[in-house]
Amino acid sequence: MTNVNPKAYNPFDIAQEQFDRIANILELSQAARDLLRTPVREYHFSIPVRMDDGDTKIFRAFRIQHNDARGPGKGGIRFHPMSTVDIMRALAMWNTWRCAVADLPLGGSMGGVICDLHNLSLGEQERMCRGWVRQLASNLGPDWDVPSPDLMTSAQHMLWMLDEYETMHGRKSPGFITGKPVEMGGSSGRKEAAGYGLMVAVREALKELEIKPANTTASFQGFGNIAQHAALLYRRMGGTVTCVSSWNQSDQTTYAFCKEQGIDPDELSAITNPFGEIHKVKAIELGYQCLPGEAWIEQNVDILVPTALENQITLENVGKISRKAKIIAEGADGAINPGAEQLLVPRGITVIPDILANAGGVTCSYFEQVQSNMNYYWKRDEVLGKLDVHMTSIYIDISNIAQSRHMALRDVAYLVAIERVARACQERGWI
After folding, report:
1. Which of 199, 255, 334, 418 could make a disulfide contact with 310, Cβ separation 3.0–4.6 Å?
2. CATH architecture of 38-184
3. Share of the chain above pLDDT 90, in %
């Protein structure tokens, strides 16, 4: 994982530029533009947390609700030291478009806390989670805004938040949050969903290129939940992962771990901590080559899969991408800088945009909401089967339009999503 300098890159500016360009194509009214290019609601607040040593520390936190014309807000909760309000705004906007392109009855939201979980005990993390819910209890819920895990948060964090919400409201409300432990009302298959959905999109892109997965290689940036499960499915499809990168907290840098003959994701996951950090010494002992983190993008592979933070493929490093590369699947939101993407188009590289590529996570979150609200739970194979069908359908629909109109997948995905949300706002009488 590479840190993003918020002074040098503002993802919300990028998100708005993306919207403005598509709004011009759609010829949206000024009212529609004014409504959709900014969040409908923002909550900025402080969370006092009693630390284990008895001191109290104050943490800054956010919840951004971009648009809920198509349904309750849906978006993650990120605990990360590099979080900013503009990152939250961008992610909330992208979540709106992601839910729309997946044709889910949901809007977009996003939240988080500026903190570093490496420096917080489990007790301090629990108090953080409960404090976050207490600040927002009247503005969240299954009919309003449904949180889920994101960077550095887990099923355990979601369970603490659920317990606090139910305690405050005096009733059971499992649909309040998704990404819960399976035994506590979560969905089987939810953990794998984002990574599996990502590989379904890659699989369909390879079909269009008439390339068999078994004849391809891939390099992943990041080795958190999405990358681990994506790499596993890709390997089952016959593909070979030759490189993954990982943030190293003790060294405060990233490393790329490579094996030309292929990486065993299960083997590597066994030496990876819950933060997605691969144990460097153990990896070297297992025969992995340890290179500087940037090496992930330089590998001579067919597929690149960035699954870390925003702005990871830039004008500075896009030239390092191998001429062999055929697909870049954007597992992380905003991973490709727009300027860099313009240089990829003439090379004929298929870019599967974030709002399409990583829609598997929110799709399965929707499945979890449905199951929680019905109190009826599906088996893992049923969940992942539904996910495969839905992601395949989404990809084919967007790709068919892109081919017929000679447009990039990203442009078509945005066209479809923004048009759907704008129409919902119009039909509601908001604009």
Report:
1. 334
2. 3-Layer(aba) Sandwich (3.40)
3. 95
Average of per-residue pLDDT values in the chain: 95
With beta carbons less than 8 A apart as the criterion, state whether 327 and 399 touch: no
Task: Give residue-wise pLDDT tens across range 232-241.
Answer: 999 999 999 9
> Is 90 exceeded by the pLDDT of residue 253?
yes
Q: 327 pairs with which residues across the strands? A: 303, 350
Q: Do residues 219 and 301 touch, judged by C-beta distance below 8 A? A: yes
pTM of the shown model: 0.92
What are the structural domain ranges in the chain? Answer: 38-184, 191-356
Cβ(62)–Cβ(111) below 8 Å: yes
Residue located via tokens 């993390």: 125
pLDDT per residue as tens digits for the range 303-345: 999 998 889 999 999 999 999 999 999 999 999 999 999 999 8
Residue 5 in this model has a pLDDT that exceeds 60: no
Q: pLDDT tens digits, residue range 91-112?
A: 999 999 999 999 999 999 999 9
